[in-house]
Design brief:
Elements: E1 26-29, E2 32-35, E3 37-45, E4 50-55, E5 61-66, H1 68-72, H2 74-77, E6 82-92, E7 105-116, E8 146-155, E9 158-165, E10 175-180, E11 190-192, H3 199-202, E12 204-210, E13 213-221, E14 226-235, E15 244-253, E16 256-262, H4 273-279
Parallel strand pairs: 5-7
Antiparallel strand pairs: 1-2, 3-4, 3-6, 4-5, 6-7, 8-9, 9-10, 10-11, 12-13, 13-14, 14-15, 15-16
């Protein structure tokens, strides 16, 4: 591991590679649900860890942080289905921006090791189970110990949430954008940023006045010039100037909108000026136009 990783403390290593390939698809490490298997497609050394892009057994792409040692094994691991072993570790804080003299650190979940794991033969289908009592529909991907900043469904099979720690502030706590399939045991499709960093490092946003109300947006960006913007608004948008509400998420590439999804119902959360002030969220010189 790179010297920038602090090895002290309990690492909580889960030795999943010893389990059969079909034993379990996901594990929970450091409070985060992780895929137990993946096929790497790209490796990149970063300031604090090795960044690995993988595909799961369903073909969905996901990204993980890993020990620097894994980047050195790219040729032998790339394109192979791997059993992934995770651990929690202290790494240089993102706010250090790679400065070796910076003493700040943060706890993240890393891939500790990866071993080839061919697909097992499909198991015999179990007998149909008795119908279980209906469960209430999932409303967010935030945990009970987190704050729902924003959450809504954009389709029956897609849920978007912005979650923050209860202690979120300009210099502490964290904020993450999460999306995936609700009411499912499948891993999330996306969690940004992967590391838990204070809200101002994770996102930008602002609230602004409109005729008949106002609007609010929050943007989370990736290293590939892709950004996800959640928004809410109320204004005189009706055919005769009636007050109407709107909410949803847009996907941007290089600053241009490539997709826009509307909430199918009223969104949940605290998205707005009061929470922005508490968490230290600012526009950072950016802007956003609410979709029609």
């Amino acid at each position: 591991m790179s010297p920038s990783l602090v090895r002290s403390g309990f690492l909580g290593v889960l030795l999943l590679s010893a389990l059969p390939a079909a034993a379990q698809d996901t594990v929970t490490v450091g409070g985060e649900k992780k895929r137990a298997f993946g096929t790497p497609t790209a490796f990149q050394n970063g300031d604090t860890a090795c960044y690995v892009t993988l595909k799961d057994d369903r073909g969905a792409t996901f990204e993980e942080l890993a020990d620097f040692d894994l980047c050195s094994l790219e040729k032998s691991l790339k394109g192979k289905r791997l059993a992934l072993t995770y651990k929690t570790a202290r790494v240089m804080a993102a706010s250090c921006q790679g400065n070796p003299d910076c003493k700040k650190s943060e706890t993240v979940v890393l891939i500790a090791s990866a071993k080839p794991a061919p697909l097992a033969a499909p198991a015999q289908a179990p007998a149909p189970a008795a119908p279980s009592p209906a469960k209430s529909a999932q409303t967010s991907f935030c945990t009970p110990t987190e704050t729902i900043v924003f959450s809504c469904r954009t389709s029956p099979t897609k849920l978007v949430s912005v979650c923050a720690s209860k202690d979120a502030a300009p210099n502490r706590g964290y904020l993450q954008y999460r999306t995936g399939k609700p009411d499912s045991s499948e891993p999330l499709d996306l969690t940004l940023p992967a590391a838990q960093v204070p809200p101002p490092q994770a996102a930008s946003g602002e609230s602004f006045p409109l005729a008949g109300g106002g609007g609010t947006w929050l943007r989370v960006s990736t290293k590939n010039n892709i950004a996800f913007v959640v928004y809410t608004g109320i204004g005189n948008w009706g055919p005769r100037g009636e007050t109407r509400e709107k909410a949803g998420v847009t996907v941007e590439r290089d600053g241009k909108t490539v997709a826009s999804l509307k909430c199918t119902g009223k969104p949940l959360g605290l998205l707005g000026p009061d929470w922005f002030a508490k968490a230290g969220i600012t526009a950072k010189g950016q802007d956003f136009d609410l979709p029609d």
